[in-house]
């Protein structure tokens, strides 16, 4: 089992009120790299920020790292369009940061990213992969891809109140600018990605397509962005079994319809509860109030911990100590 | 303990008869990336070659991977000037492949590589690092750096008969072309690297300088290239304790004077014998006849295995099975 995290950027995140990843737009640029460094090393190394929401909710990378420290797993980070150097080792799939989804072709190199990621996915020696993501603004581009493919699934949000009307308006503008009807890219995942997606979705789609073609079992680790990835895969004719491992915070989000989407797409859904209601740390309360919800493979990591028989109390204790070390500027090692 | 492998290229390797890394110049371009993939995954993934010497001696990456499979360690691969995409996740330190050391400035961006690598080294959370390398032609650039610094140490070779006269002629031409006397860059490691080095030495130097400055213990894992790295560090005023972990194949090489160099540089020398004379595999015989000798952190990995109490027979068995899988085009996973 290897955990893959694709990390990148889309300028879509700069649209006001879209994303909770990073307390401000400047910080958001460093969020995906910082997330990778936290999973790789337990703390930011080259990234100048600790990713927190505007209210101080720490990144889900902390939960994934907590599982790594308790259960152990190999990490494969993918540079799916980062703009700042990261100390986390990454695989290069020729991805540049994505442009604003309201433009005509925000991911002009989507086909190249898909090909490179597919080559990587096909070549990995693992029997099973967990595939997660980190990209601020990614639920909006996920909504864009779903619209381009003509699928009705909703998307979740890293904010407690999902700015879904704002996202829909952004997507409508993007479709118009791309000269696409809703469903105009059905059956053509690369067109949907180039016109309405982001480089992380392109990398996840390519990597999973390659892995599935070589017989590797794949669990998509995440929420509605991974529903978009699964939709792309089904539109590409990939009929391999796929898992979807997520958190209760997404699964309970009424705006996302995750269970229905998973059933329609034939995804084996696993929802793993970290039991934050049985803990005392302020970070737990922020998750319980609907912040962050998912990301950086959090739901998949929790499923991995559960599968290995790690008590959730151990994971929570590690989340608490990592969060304290990060927010106090301490040494998270 | 984390194992760092810096991987890159120098056009110096194209000079005929200089290097055993890669059976031909085209293959040599893919050798460092293939080495990283073997340590990361057990087999090449994107690299189109299995690195073998002209006679079929497998890369020392196989030994390092064998230790990883038996003893386990975290890997941090550094892209210190690769030219082909690799599926092994790598840290970017802004390195391009080096030019031929006979040119005036084969590593014009040496200072930038050193700074980026130093930032990474300073930020890593580990108490201890093992630092190795893979770069075809690297002993010749090591000889070049030693000449630029005015130090008398010899260098080893990945060939049974060290083409040392050829290397000396190459270095003499490089010094003349760079307008340097022997010792003309004493006390100025970045000038030595830019004029006579390669991007891997620049990355190793920077990373270790940063790590040592932040109190991290460092063992240089390799032979005479790591003597050159240590010499650069001492010329930079780094007086932290440093280890040098290598194989008996380098330590016994009369052209290298490794023990004297280690003593003069204040390096704590560890020579770990994999006991290839007590095994049956043809690959063992090639090492015993002086091919390959060291590289890709092999000596450091063997020391790590010994320190963890892993029987060398287990390491040898894994080397044999990995080699068979690689040379038969089988699945090394």
Bulk shape of chain A: globular
Number of helices of chain A: 13
H/E element string of chain A? EHHEEHEHHHHEHEHHEHHH
| Average pLDDT number of chain A | 93
Low-confidence stretches of chain A: 329-333
Question: What fraction, in percent, of the residue positions of chain A are helical?
Answer: 40-55%
Task: Give me the Rg of chain A, rounded.
Answer: 18 Å
Query: What is the terminal-to-terminal distance of chain A?
Result: 24 Å
Adjacency order of strands in the biggest sheet of chain A: 3-2-1-4-5-6-7
Biggest beta sheet summary of chain A: 7 strands, parallel
How many strand segments of chain A? 7
In a few lines, what is going on in this structure?
The structure is a homodimer of 333-residue chains. Chain A is α/β, with parallel strands linked by helices.
What does this structure look like?
Two copies of one chain form a homodimer. The first copy, chain A, is an alpha/beta fold. Chain A contains 13 helices and seven strands. In chain A, strands 3-2-1-4-5-6-7 form a seven-stranded parallel beta sheet, sandwiched between helices. In chain A, strand 5 (217-221), helix 8 and strand 6 (242-246) form a beta-alpha-beta unit. In chain A, helix 7 (199-213) crosses helix 8 (224-235) and helix 8 packs parallel to helix 10 (258-265). Residues 329-333 of chain A have low confidence and may be disordered. The A-B interface holds A 41-46, 75-78, 85-92, 94, 116, 119-120, 123-126, 331-333 and B 41-46, 75-78, 85-94, 116, 119-120, 123-126, 331-333.
């Amino acid at each position: 089992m290897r955990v893959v995290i694709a990390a990148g950027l889309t300028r879509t995140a700069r649209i006001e009120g879209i994303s909770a990843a990073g307390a401000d737009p400047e910080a958001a640029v460093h969020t995906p790299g910082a997330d990778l460094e936290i999973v790789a090393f337990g703390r930011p190394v080259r990234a100048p920020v600790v990713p927190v929401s505007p209210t101080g909710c720490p990144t889900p990378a902390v939960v994934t790292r907590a599982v790594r420290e308790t259960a152990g797993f190999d990490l494969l980070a993918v540079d799916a369009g980062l703009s700042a150097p990261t100390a986390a080792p990454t695989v290069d799939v020729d991805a540049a940061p994505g442009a604003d989804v309201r433009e005509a072709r925000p991911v002009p190199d989507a086909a190249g990213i898909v090909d490179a990621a597919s080559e990587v996915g096909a070549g990995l020696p693992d029997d099973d992969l967990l595939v997660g993501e980190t990209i601020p603004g990614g639920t909006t581009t996920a909504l864009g891809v779903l619209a381009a493919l003509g699928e009705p699934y909703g998307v979740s949000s890293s904010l407690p109140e999902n700015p879904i009307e704002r996202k829909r308006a952004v997507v409508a503008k993007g479709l118009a600018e791309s000269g696409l009807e809703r469903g105009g890219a059905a059956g053509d995942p690369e067109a949907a990605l180039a016109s309405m997606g982001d480089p992380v979705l392109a990398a996840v789609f390519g990597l999973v397509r390659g892995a599935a073609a070589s017989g590797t079992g794949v669990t998509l680790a995440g929420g509605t962005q991974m529903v978009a990835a699964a939709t792309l895969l089904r539109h590409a004719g990939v009929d391999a079994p796929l898992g979807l491992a997520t958190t209760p915070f997404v699964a309970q989000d009424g705006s996302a319809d995750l269970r229905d989407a998973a059933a329609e797409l034939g995804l084996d859904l696993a929802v793993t509860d970290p039991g934050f209601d049985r803990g005392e740390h302020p970070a737990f309360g922020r998750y319980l109030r609907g912040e962050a919800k998912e990301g950086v493979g959090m739901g998949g990591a929790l499923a991995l911990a559960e599968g290995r028989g790690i008590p959730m109390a151990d994971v929570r204790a590690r989340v608490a100590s990592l969060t304290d070390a990060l927010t106090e500027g301490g040494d998270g090692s």
